[in-house]
Each structure stands twice: as structure tokens, then as C-alpha cells.
Amino acid sequence: MKVLVTENLRINLDTELWECRHCGVELISARENYKRGLLVYNRDPREIHKPLLDPTRYKHTYSPNPDWCRILEYYCPKCGTMMETEYLPPGHPPLRDIEFDIDALKAQWKDREEVVEPTLGEAPKRKSHSHAGHSH
Fold first, then answer.
1. In this structure, which of 28, 96, 114, 136 has its CB flanked by the most CB atoms within 10 Å?
2. Measuring CA to CA, how many Å separate 118 from each of 9, 57, 64?
3. How far is CA 42 from its chain centroid?
4. Residue 66 backbone zone (phi > 0: left; psi -120 to 50: alpha; other: beta)
5. Has residue 89 been placed in a domain?
6. The whole model's pTM is what?
7. Which domain holds residue 101?
């Protein structure tokens, strides 16, 4: 049974592994931080957020200082899909932004049908309100 987690990630409950939803490559144990199974590109934040002021003339340029900020981009090692991006102080470990109780997830999904693609419903109907002859 595979459970969709994000637009790019799923968990295979039979193997207890994170997988790329695009190419199906197995990444790492679902009991671990999925980011440990991905390629990481440690970006200089000045590449992403270009200085607004001339750095030869001004100390503060409105661009993040790489001594204080780094941008990590995470990619699937097989197909190259970008899975996540995060801003961190240098030396800080990657955040663990998704963590499941795998045993509870298995129990929750044991009698369910596998969802291959997310279901998309209709947009909610908007209520119209009228105030003194005005309609919204």
C-alpha cells in the first residue's frame, strides 16, 4: 500500500520506504527524515535574492548574508524533481518537517483502498451576501 504524502513524496507501507511519486525510486526508511535520501544543493542565498544595492558601495544590500542564511534545495536522486527547499542558518541540520507514526499509519490504511492520485473535488460554492442593495 502506497500513501500519498505530498505532490512529490509517498510512503510505501509494505516496504516502509519513502518514494518519489514521479519516478518511483525508493529513497530512505519512512521512519527517517526523507531529506536524508535526497540530493542536496546548498545554495548561496545571494544567487536567489540578488542584491538591491551595489555590494561594492554598501554593506547591507537587502540580500541575505550567507554567513547567516543558507538555502537548501532537495532533489530526487533519480529523476531530479525538486522535493523541497528550506532556509536555514549555516550549520543547522535539515528540518524534519514530516514525521509519521508508521505503525499507526499502517493500521489506519489496512482496510482502505490505495489512492493512486489525489481526488479533486469541485470548488466550494460561494455564498452571496447582500447589504442594502449591494451584492458581494
1. 28
2. 12, 51, 37
3. 16
4. alpha
5. yes
6. 0.79
7. 2-118
